[in-house]
Amino acid sequence: QVPLVESGGGLVQAGDSLRVSCAASGGTLRGYAVAWFRQAPGKEREFVAAVSRNGGFTYYADSVKGRFTISGENAKNPVYLQMNDLKPEDTAVYSCAAGRGVITSSLRNQEAYPTWGQGSQVTVSS
Questions:
Q1: Mean pLDDT, 10 residues at a time, over the chain (126 residues)?
Q2: Within 13 Å, how many C-alpha atoms sit on residue 94's CB side?
Q3: pLDDT per residue over 87-120, tens digit each?
Q4: DSSP characters for 33-77?
Q5: Who's near 40: CB < 8 A, 6+ residues apart?
Q6: Order of strands, sheet of 18-24, starting from the edge strand that comes earlier in the sequence
């Protein structure tokens, strides 16, 4: 498993766009399923989006579907989460996770991922 490094968080206004990235430090994400999770203050960590090991499948939480896009070409380093039309309720710490053995049916399951990034704060003001 390779260490993950995230970047790209920040403070934006509602309706703005932001892109966060997840890179493998000293390695590649080729062959890894990659997912983004987020945790807002006082709430549990929740699934946001995921791409399968071969890049062929992407999944999104209903709350972000149509607004967020996870890059499907995870053989390339890094993997991006493009966030459009951001809302204040999107405010959270966004963490990427990766795993070689994550099967498609487990992409939404945070326990399936052995490797995590440090987290990147995304704040959306109204």
A1: 90 97 88 95 96 90 97 75 98 96 92 95 97
A2: 31
A3: 999 999 999 999 998 998 999 999 999 999 999 9
A4: EEEEEEE-TTS--EEEEEE-TTS--EEE-TTTTTTEEE-S-TTSS
A5: 89, 91, 92, 93
A6: 4-7, 18-24, 79-83, 68-70
As given in the structure block, the two tokens for residue 1 are 């498993």
Cis peptide bond N-terminal to 114, omega within 30:
no
Pairing of strands 33-39, 120-125: unpaired
Q: d(Cα 68, Cα 4) in Å, to the nearest integer?
A: 21
> Tokens in use for 119?
């987290």
